[in-house]
Amino acid sequence: QQQQQQQQLQHQQQTPLSHQLQQQQQQSQLLAQQLASMQQQQHQFQSQFPQSNSQHPNAQLAPVPQQLQQQAYSVQGGALHGSDALMQQSLAARMQQLTVSHHFLPDHGDLNKPRPYQPANPCVVPASFPQEPSRIFDQPALFEKFDLDTLYFIFYCQQGSYQQYLAARELKRQSWRYHKKESKWFQRHEEPKECTDEYEQGTYVYFDWENNWCTRVRREFKFDYKHLEDELSVGS
């Protein structure tokens, strides 16, 4: 009987310890799986957004050491080693991921789907023709290479576009001034004969886009400053 009682007592003492070790082992395995999943998500994020990762200092997540995952399954001397360090690593990785996610929050522009290019005056053309304008036409430096005819064509035929803005800026850079009432571009042919705070008068060269698409000379023209477009800054 004494032997049976000792065996029962020993079994009762071992059962809570075994149950505790089993729970710790299950928790460790779960943490290891979570860390492996976060590591996989990290690699997917970096492969999809390589530029964003390189631009932001917090965008690189610390890799999960493989030895931590191995420690999660190691039981020595009746105690589980590495579970506390693994839990701390998991918490640190989660906080770091939250920090990175905060820097890549979506804005209102992300809600709008990219709109395909729609020509202003659609026409049936061969499929081999370019179907969309090149992104090179969004570069301001390119407009410095265009001659006046090209700049005028863009200004008068690409209304309301970024290219119209760039053409106007380049014309102003070349000392052309837009007359809002005349809807024409003027340039001094010589120094004004009369100049006041409200107007200047003299000989000007202007671009006739409505009739002959050419430059003409207008003498004794009074250019009222109230009709001068001054909203567009050349340096902007």
What does this 3D model show about the protein?
With 236 residues, the chain is of the alpha+beta class. Helices cover 46% and strands 15% of the residues. The protein has helices spanning 2-48, 50-55, 66-71, 83-102, 108-111, 140-143, 148-157, 162-173, and strands at residues 75-76, 79-80, 177-179, 184-188, 194-195, 199-208, 214-224. Strands 3, 4, 5, 6 and 7 form a 5-stranded antiparallel β-sheet that branches. β1 (75-76) and β2 (79-80) form a beta hairpin. α1 runs parallel beside α4 (83-102). It is elongated. The model is unreliable at 51-65 and 67-81 (pLDDT under 50).
Biggest sheet character = 5 strands, antiparallel
Give the number of helices: 8
**Low-pLDDT regions:** 51-65, 67-81
Q: Mind telling me the C-alpha Rg?
A: 37 Å
Strand content: 5-15%
Structural class call reads: alpha+beta
What is the CA-CA span between the terminal residues?
Answer: 99 Å
Q: Average pLDDT across residues? A: 76
- Work out the number of β strands: 7
Quick summary of this structure?
This protein is α+β, with helices and mostly antiparallel strands.
